[in-house]
Amino acid sequence: MASPTQAPTPILQKPPGYKSPFKEPTPPPRKPPTRHQKRKHRRGCCCICFCIVFIIIFILIFVAAIAAGLIYIFYDPRLPEFHVGSFGLNNLNVTQKSDGVYLNAETIMKVEVKNESGKMGWLFDETNIQVTAENGDLNLGSTTMSGFEVKEKELKELKADTMVRDIALNESLEKKLEGKEIVFVVEITTKTGVEMSGWKSWKIDVTVLCGDKSLQQLEARDTPNCTLTTLKWIKIHI
To answer: Could you confirm whether the keyword Ligase appears in this record (predicted)?
Structure first.
């Protein structure tokens, strides 16, 4: 005799608000990263970036140093040399007037610019030449020359003349002029750059002072000392 089929057991619905007496295990909450961990991560990134930048700068400096060394060996660069080849006073006239003593004079000089470099030339912009005496107490005029070039192993002579009229003299300057003891200074201001294999560099300011010699010494062909100043602080005795 077959057993009667059993009816399925109905699923009991939990009443509203029912709480199970058995607690289900819940995973522990994940702790957010601390500030110390964030700072450590940022410091690590900064260190890596700094190292990369430092390596790049080091490589660039190394390559530039090698290139500069090759250029120096191949072109043999040297600064231009300035000298006052000759200097004299012409038409010197000291006149006594009712209100003092006055000077009329002309200076005649030759400025030599020498390029000792074997494979590069020097380019010069408009050049101003001024003549003073006795630490600037006496101004003997100035002249301006157009731009010029001094090629490889070349010596260029620049003729520069100045003229002054009715310059007041004190007693000390008058006596020194009569005895040819007055000390002159020739100041040359210009801009210069180099030319190498058709390439021309930018130009920088250059000031050359030649002096510390009296008129008597200059007329005896005693060459005055010259000092070249560039970038307003680099001084070179030539």
So the answer is: no
- DSSP letter at 181 equals -
Provide φ and ψ at 85, rounded to 5°. Answer: -70, -40
Residue 156 domain flag: yes
Token pair, residue 21, equals 């007496």
Beta strands per DSSP E along the chain: 81-97, 100-114, 121-124, 127-133, 138-145, 148-150, 155-169, 183-196, 199-200, 204-214, 225-230, 234-237
Q: How far apart are CA 117 and CA 211, in angstroms?
A: 25
Indicate whether 79 pLDDT > 70: yes
Indicate the length of the chain as a whole number.
Answer: 238
Give, in order, the Cα–Cα distances in Å from 54 to each of 24, 59, 64, 65, 68: 57, 9, 15, 16, 21
Question: Is residue 3 domain-resident?
Answer: no
pLDDT in tens, 154-181: 999 999 999 999 999 998 998 888 888 9
The SS3 assignment for 34 reads coil
Please state whether beta strands 183-196 and 127-133 pair in parallel, antiparallel, or not at all (unpaired).
Answer: antiparallel
Q: How many angstroms separate the CA atoms of 140 and 132, rounded?
A: 5
Please report whether residue 8 resides in a domain.
no
Q: What domain range includes position 157?
A: 81-237
Q: Are residues 94 and 68 in the same domain?
A: no
